[in-house]
Amino acid sequence: MTDPALSSSSQHPTAANDVASCNKKSTDDAEIGRKTVVEETAAVVDSAAERALCRKFDFRLLPVLATMYLFNALDKGNLDLNFAPGQYNLIVGIFFVPYDSQSPTLSSPITSVVFAPPLALLGKKIGPSRMLPILMLHFGSFTLLVAATHNFSGIFALRFFLGAVESAFFPLVIFYLTTFYRRNELARRLAVFYAASNIANAFSGLLAFGVFQIKSDLVDYSWRWLFIIEGTLTILFAIFAFFYLPKSAAEAKFLNEAEKSLAYHRIQVDSSSIVNEVFNLRESLQIFKRPSTYGFLLVEIALGVPLQSVGLFLPQIVQRIVKDTVKVNLYTVAPNITGAVSLLILAFSSDLLRIRFPFICLGFALSFTGFIIYAAIEDVERQLQLAYYATFMMTWGTSAPSVLLSTWYNNNVAHEGQRLALTSVGVPLANLMGLVSSNVFREQDKPKYAPALITTASFGGFGFIAAGALGLYMVFDNKSRNRRQGVKLSARDVPTSRLRDGPKVDDFRWFV
């Protein structure tokens, strides 16, 4: 018996072909629709593939970048403490600002941020993967030359050049990572990278302690070995990094074609408006026409003082607890290590919840509390444990806001050139506030340094207010935009490919 369906098909071949054609058309339309949805959404489409891709970036990029930054922190962090009165402050100050004055008071502070923007923007033009090792090679060379100095003037001059070449390093690393990771993946990666700085501060104390025990007739002072070791290792690693770092995800040799395509898509919808956009200086500088830019920079200023006070003067602060200069280095290890742990906890939490400003405010609150407690202690001998605990709070509260603030404004700028322009001014601006730190920690105020501690705490309190106000403005502006459009969108719902013009775009939503 013949199947009626087969019989029908055989009798009406044209109808069967039409059905097949319609089915094929429907399938094609569905495929086109699916691709359109993929292209128009910032949501993760294939979570397993993206996790695998991120793991490759994590293992291939982060260890190398973290090691580079560790050398960066070591090279600028180790300074002999046995200078004449006022000379330590001068050397720290010259790292932030080229002097044209004979006193620690600076007549032209704006020159301190002169090197970072042009070097960073040059890095955008030739590629961060090439510029970062070049900068590292130079600051390694200057560190090595410090070992050959015989007077204060020599160290002073080398610190000038060291500060110049290192000024663009962190802004370029941040930008480089934004070309590999989504916005809600960035903070934890920057935290791992930045934790290298905290570990370097701890390690520099251990390294200095060990090197100072070296007894050798090859050098007149044992501290020279410190700079010989650090400078040599920095130069060697810079050469390796030059050939190792990929220019972009699309040119990474460790990715296959499908992974390269996915990497490009991720950045197109959740980081940049145009991936690997050709650098245009005029367009990049348009970022400084946005009012929000100055809100971010104001928070950077507030952050800079507590950040630099802890980074540069923690040994001096701890000297109030420990009198032995050599042991001071050892007592800075634990606060720096726990600071790195605090940074990782806050950054991972921020990425998970996709919010920035509450965690930045929390960091400011911790540092403010730590400095106030330490300043309020009159008798350290009687309250030794509380005093030492306050130094832990200082480190807990300074590392996280630095990472999260940089992440925050990078998350809100889709134009690659503008993103780097803002970062190349914001990060050095925070470093510039090391001028305040280097001039309020005065010799005559030791060992308590009460004016310095109160000044630093005040900046922390102001940072809490400024970051909170900016964050609340973004929350209310997002709600206002949703009301006008009659929708309920957040930053995660809008692809960055639409956001080249920032807040001018109706669909723009702040990444709070």
Largest sheet: none
CATH architecture title = Up-down Bundle
How many β-strands, per DSSP?
0
User: Class, according to the CATH hierarchy?
Assistant: Mainly Alpha
Percentage of residues in helical conformation: over 70%
Radius of gyration, Cα only, in angstroms? 27 Å
Give helix and strand order, one letter per element, not per position.
HHHHHHHHHHHHHHHHHHHHH
Instruction: Give the distance, in angstroms, between the N- and C-terminal Cα atoms.
Output: 71 Å
3D architecture notes:
By secondary structure, this protein is mainly alpha-helical. 71% of the residues lie in helices and 0% in strands. Helix 16 runs parallel beside helix 18 and helix 17 packs antiparallel against helix 21. The longest helix is centred in the last third of the chain and has 36 residues. The radius of gyration is 27 Å and the shape is globular. The N terminus is likely disordered.
What are the defining features of this structure?
21 helices; mainly alpha; Growth Hormone, Chain: A; single chain; 512 residues
What is the gist of this entry?
This protein has 512 residues and is mainly alpha-helical. It is 71% helix and 0% strand. α4 packs parallel to α7 and α4 packs across α10.
